Amino acid sequence: MRRPVIHYLALIISMSLIHVPVVEGAVPVDIDGFVRDVDGNPVQNASILLWEFNLEAETTTDHRGYFALVASTDEPVCTLYAFYDDPETPGVDLLPSAESVKTDSDVQKQVNFTLVPAATVNIMGQIRPIESSTNIQRYAFEVVDPSRGNVLRVDGFNLIYGTGMNVQSYFLGLDPSTVIVPAGEPFAISVSSSYQYERTRRTRRWYGWRRSRVRVDAFTRFDMVEGDGFNLDAGEVLDLDVREFSIRFDLLKVESLKGEVEANVTKLEEKGFYTTSERHTLQRAREQTDSSVAKLERKEYDASYVDLRQAYLKLIGVKARLDTLMAEASVSVNILVAFIALTAVALATLLTESGTLKLLFTVAFSLPLLLFLRWVYPASGVIPMDLFAMKGLISVVAIFLAVSVIPRFFSRIEGEGGFVWMGAMVAVFSMAKRNLKRRRLRSVFTFATLLTLTMSFVALTSLSTGYGLVYTRVHGRAPDASGVMVRMPAYKPKNQFENGWFYPLIETMFDWTIGNEGIAFAAMKAENTPILRPYARVDDWPIFGVIGVQPDVDPIMPSIDGVVVEGESLREEGTCLLHVLLLRYDAVEIDDVITIRGVGLRVVGFFNSRIGDVSDMDGDTILPSYQVNLTPGEEPTIVAMTCETREMVVTTLDTALMINGVHVSRFDAVLDPGVDAEVLGKSMALSREYRFWVSDGGKVHLTFMGDQIGGKGLPLLVPWAIVVLNVVTTMLNSMYERRREINILSSIGLNPANIAGVFLAEASVLGVIAGGIGYLLGLGWYPLMAGLSMAPVVQQKVSAVWCVAAIGISMASVIIGSSIALRGSVVLTPSSRRKWALGEEPKGLESSWDIPLPVKVEKELIADFTDFIKGYLGRYDNRRFAPYIGLLKVGVEERDGKKLQIFSFSYSEASASMRGIHSQNTLTISMGPMDEVYTVLLQSKGDRDSAQKTGAFLRRILIEWTAERGKKI
To answer: In this structure, are 171 and 286 located in the same domain?
Structure first.
């Protein structure tokens, strides 16, 4: 049976191989013919093109419309095109024509073309689907029959235009946004990505010719049509904005999504969920959708897109929350049963010491709490009642046994380390429990305030995270230019040596930026990648930073010109500007050539230090960054800092990009007059995952797509502060009331930490019980609020994580309040600081800031003073925290017959920002010949901010010394 099957398969394969066109090398092609219009008139200068994967041959027609094309090709099939465009008319008057030609063997034939009248459609605007922020670079415009939807085909010519290599625009050399349509016929334009493939050459396989295709773009197809379709006369030109039709199509998608989300909300409401917050978000989405429609009618396409995109993101966020809400609640109900058991056991333990009564109280408290949870928690109904009761019983028994056995186990263990500490904790909580029982009224009032706080937190507030448009004010200096700055998101370093790096911008991003409607022009700005070593040296001066600008278009160029104090402004390629100090120290002169990484730059001018005050559109300095090792000689700690103005060079963009390590970091876009910068910035941010700084009227806003934290309902800070103050008052009264008891505890050997632990334990017991019960009672508010006409707009806290948060809020209140009370009873207020200021600015690279510190030390205290300074500085030897003191050295020097105490050290505050704090310092303690006291001088090498920070840090040390010794300064 198998042999006949094999024979049949062999026969089929053989027959298929017979029909495979076999091309042995290139074959000659000889085609001639005429090109005429519909009236029979010859078309002169028409282009005749023979295409397959590449352009095989081309020619033009003569005055008779005749052409003769001779070529050779190794392709099996080619397409012959006839195309004519009168350059004197605004559009294309004749529709191109095409015919397929088999070229697997010698070709000698005549092909005549008749070109029919045509019209032209110019497509404007960018394709921006609301469901994606991908930059749509590949698309197709299909001219379709508006009644049937099929692509129009005229004389072998498929009317498909756009980008890529499978559309007619590619073969005819047309602009991708130009669409040629037949005149006098109704049509619509379908916008899609269905033709976007990377086209490759045909390859022969044993089964025939094969073409490989890889899809590179995808978005939902939509149509550009009005009424029964567009209908244009011969030679007519129609301008269509793709944004209008894209937004209309996206409005339908948003309406559909809105209906789906509303149905899900109604379904969850029927199951008992509180969905006022989701209803409110739905309403906001409706309002933004209506606003989008109104702006679309006014042809405000960018503003319409901003509203519609935000409405879409809101609906997507609500849909995602609704999809996970039921599953999250189903899991959390099991955890909440355990929390109820813990709360019941803690409350019973507080009321009685008897094991039997404690068990009875536990059951008595847990039963109503479990029933209450069953009633108010929306997902508890999915668990059968018998299974719910079984889980509650197991939780109560397990937690009761744990709470009863663990304290006894630890209290009997004698040893070292953690067991002794745990036993002490058990004793402290036992004392705290008895104190709470003796002072019932105070405990009840404290419990009531905590209960009110946690109930308010659960029922009347909500915090939520989501992904959406962020638009926030950036506080800083006023920018020197208005417009929109474009940068990539912040770079995430893989190691310390990448701190301060940035993602370079590429040319396609620049093309997209200037393609936005409302942008007049844009300028690129380049800067160096921060590194530890200088990029070059001019004489002995290091150059750590390089800036590249476009002098002819950069909007901040007038500000740069304004700080040039010697020579001329930057204009020509291959030239640069340096700091004027290099001129004054004879390091370089005008017309000298400096070399940076093999690139020669001719010096044409010098700027002063005011270049650091030049602000870009983001309100930040234009100065680049460099890297600093905060711990030389040790394990490196690398941070990025802003270059000193004397250590940088300004050159042109193209020249800067020739230097290895210099890349384009941002675009500065200047807007057309009357353009709303906020609307344009938001529109750009909603379209792309970049960072946009909007500068308008001296204010700067940052906008981007990112995670948002939203709060709704009543603010929690005020009631939380009231509860904290209440706890402070209660605990202070308790301490004054129990002074005698505290003295007794001290006399029997308890240290201050143990005594404070008793008060903190009292507060913690109340916090845990109030947090657990408050969460449950807060859940009970949701069914009541659902029936109110003015229900609070909060999200229901169905997750067990919120129970932990409620206990955390309660615990934080009592612990912070108790800590303030305990600290307030012993802490003294130190003397106030005296005013001090930096000395004169350093004159050279090796100079330092001289900062006299306002302290005087008597001779008899000098040894204690130096020991105090050494010990204090030694505390800050951990480089992971700020400030960090490194390379600390202490010594004695003799100058002019006097002994000086010398402290040398480095001070740094590590930071991932562009600016960091780093200084090398010498602290000198000396006495003059006529003085009787020692004075202190700080010499700091670094920029002004670093010296200021170092001086303030040393001033705090001196204040503590003065407060400790009781001396006036």
So the answer is: no
